[in-house]
Specification:
Helix content: 40-55%
InterPro entries: Fungal_SecMetab_SDRs, NAD(P)-bd_dom_sf, SDR_fam
Distance between the termini: 43 Å
Family: Belongs to the short-chain dehydrogenases/reductases (SDR) family.
Pfam family, one: adh_short
Bound molecules: NADP nicotinamide-adenine-dinucleotide phosphate
Shape: globular
CATH architecture: 3-Layer(aba) Sandwich
Largest sheet: 7 strands, parallel
GO molecular function: oxidoreductase activity
Order of helices and strands: EHEHEHEHEHHEHHE
Protein name: Short chain dehydrogenase
Number of helices: 8
């Protein structure tokens, strides 16, 4: 009898870290990866790029704008109809505005904290049908309240107030969901590291600085969590790939 596939959904799967996750997960023999993309056109291109580098990738696409309740509801119906359940939910989609004003802060909180909360709430019935479900919130060390005051932290001198507030809220969401789904679903917050992507329009600066990593390392870290290698750290704020690599809230 063949092993049942693990079904994983990645929000913001069409670009950056999400795309690397879709590439890695869909190449695993026992996974089916669902790429969530708010633009079907961008998602289709990303899906084709994955298929062209590995034609046996187990991957599909779902339209998912995490700030739209209608889009979330349709994505849930589509995943339910095609798979009947969900094993891994990776709340990865995010933004990093550099300005600070009411509207910028409100939009950032909507994308980075409110929407992941509602995505999880909507997919919870499908996750609860899995015998071994995991939710991963892609957070950032910039959201650590303790690290904000640590002069030894490499981003101590950086501002990013809007983004920090939103990721601190996301961390609390992870802690609340770990409590809410205790014994039913494992829940993690995960920092993917300082990674070269389009986030905050910093790609060029990160490439020049030479200290940022490529997204494939972040994807390996997320696969380790999906595989259960970090289950002992359920409910905590993780980074990197190994057990014991934790950040303070
Ligand atoms: N890069 C880093 O150094 C770093 C460090 C720590 C944490 N992170 C976190 O990692 C996650 C991924 O970021 P990234 O670096 O890969 O950035 P990215 O390349 O800019 O990708 C962000 C993804 O989120 C999607 N997205 C944004 N708003 C969305 C919405 N309303 N609905 C659905 N999708 C939406 C984007 O879709 P579009 O293509 O349609 O815009 C894109 O696919 C974020 O949560 C970020 O905060 C990144």
């Amino acid at each position: 009898m063949s092993t049942p596939r693990i079904t994983a959904l990645v929000t913001g799967g069409n670009n950056g870290i999400g795309l690397a996750v879709c590439q890695l997960f869909s190449a695993q023999p026992n996974y089916h990866c669902i790429m969530g993309s708010r633009s079907l056109e961008k998602g289709q291109k990303a899906l084709e790029s994955i298929k062209s580098s590995n034609s046996s990738s187990a991957i599909s696409l779902v339209q998912l704008d995490i700030t739209s309740d209608d889009s979330i509801a349709s994505a849930v119906e589509e995943v339910k109809a095609k798979h009947g359940h969900l094993d891994v939910l990776i709340n990865n989609a995010g933004v990093c505005p550099v300005d600070f004003s009411r509207s910028v802060l409100r939009d950032c909180l909507d994308t980075n904290a409110i929407s992941p909360a509602l995505v999880t709430q909507a997919f919870a019935p499908l996750l609860l049908k899995s015998s071994n479900a995991r939710i991963i919130y892609v957070s950032s060390a910039l959201g650590s309240i303790q690290k904000r005051g640590d002069p030894d932290y490499m981003a101590y001198d950086a501002d990013f107030k809007t983004y920090r507030i939103s990721k601190a809220a996301l961390n609390m969401l992870a802690a609340c969901d770990a409590w809410e789904y205790k014994d039913k679903i494992k829940v993690f917050a995960f920092c993917p590291g300082y990674v070269i992507t389009d986030l905050a329009g910093e790609r060029e600066a990160k490439e020049k600085a030479g200290i940022a990593k490529t997204p494939d390392g972040s994807a390996r870290g997320l696969l380790a969590i999906a595989e259960g290698k970090r289950d002992a750290e359920n409910g905590l704020f993780l980074h990197d790939e190994k057990l014991g690599e934790l950040y303070p809230w």
